[in-house]
Here is the input.
Amino acid sequence: MHMDDSSPSTWSIGAVARLTGLPVKVVRHWSDVGVVAPVGRTAGGYRRYDTAGVARLQLARTLRDLGMGLGDIRAALDREDGLTEVAAAHVEALEAQIRRLRTHQAVLRTVTRRTTHEGLALMTRTAHLSPDERRELVHDFLTDTLGDLDVPHFREGLLAAGADLPEDPTDEQVEAWLELGELIAEGELRSAMQRVAEYAARQERGAQDSGAGEEMRALTETWTARVREAMRAGIAADSPAADQVVAAVVAAWLPSRANASAATADGAEARTLLCEQLTAAAEPAVERFWQLLCVLGGRPAPVGIAEEGRWLTTALCANPAPGARAARLEALYTADTGPWPGGVLEALTRVQDTVGALVRATAPHQFDRPTSCTDWTVRDLLDHLVWENIIWGGLAQGTPPTDGHAEDHLGHDHIAAFETAAADARAAFRQPGMLDRSFGPAPGRRLVEQLLIELLVHGWDLAAALDRDRDLEPDIARAALPVVREIYGDLPRTAGGSIAPAQPAPEHAPALDQVAAFLGRRIPHRSGR
Here is the structure.
């Protein structure tokens, strides 16, 4: 059939393209595959489309924009009731695609924090597991990890928690599932879970009644609150001051059902058992495992206590019996030793001046640089250098600071802050008779010595961060090495302690490098200068 070019009820392919916003070649292609059919052709053979064809093309474009394939579009348009059915099927397909895309998004978001090729491959495999495969992964992990241990309630609790990813998970749940898969693949969780299970096997005596569970929750709230207060006050877990916190926690623990020993008073037996319990209860990897299960189950994740657990277990190790750490230090402090060149005050002044020169050489644009101290930037380190002068000088003056170590002590002028604090500390130490005055178990000279060591070691940290010469005050550093070994040698090298595990120092390394390595610093490769 041929139609007149000028017929007002039909349009050329070019006019249809303008009306629908589709390219001419798309209209032609859709005509060829049957999405729309021309109502006729001109004498010259050119296609003509009527109003119904234009409407059909406009609807087809809308469906195409929604992601439908041409076959589904043609089926929907050819049947009167087909649009509803095809749209419903497409909704289901889109929902599946959205779930896949959200999973891919979670994988890529996680990669921004974990960049290893192995981690990406693992997360990609984990992301595409079916629900049955996900359950099997967790079940097999728990079965293999717990083995034949007689821990029915512990085992049942873990298996009941499950690890099902909901049908329509939130972004948080998708990320939790990926992290759970990665956690299971790592060796740390397996060994930590086994330690917890072995402890549970020794302690399990049948199902706990509700009263025992409530008692345990109350006890946990008590000890974590005391530890958090100590941490906010800046009390080091391996210091004698932590002994009071330990004593208070032990006093709350002794009458509770958590005390499975015959201990009735604070002592080495009670502290050993409590430390064993905390080591099992505060395993960070197991704690994270439980938190992820809660997220997957849509339940509130419990507040983590791993950091508090690390602090308290370290405090128990450093203070294995009431007053043990204080007695050790008292014996050490009363020893009449003075290894410092020119005396301890002269040595401190030299170290303050040397560290002060590094402080003056530090520019604000270097504040964000990392340091040897975990999680500390150069600015954090400068703040700590100021704080050390403030705290030890304040103790010597009899007016310890009222603010905490976490406050900002630098202000807008880090150089002035350090020089002022250093001058105040020197003035306090030079009071008549201060070196021999008693400050608890320690004479005043030990306060000076403590500040000297702190500034010397953290001066090394600052020099390393700034890529400057680390060989500060060699004769003082040589004198410091045996003192540091004597004071800190028996402290627990734990995550909650002040000192990391000792690191190797190269043979014939400068004395301060040896001090830094003993206190847990990794020694950078020395340049040729």
User: Anything to note?
Assistant: The radius of gyration is 35 Å. The mean pLDDT is 80. The first helix runs from residue 13 to 20.
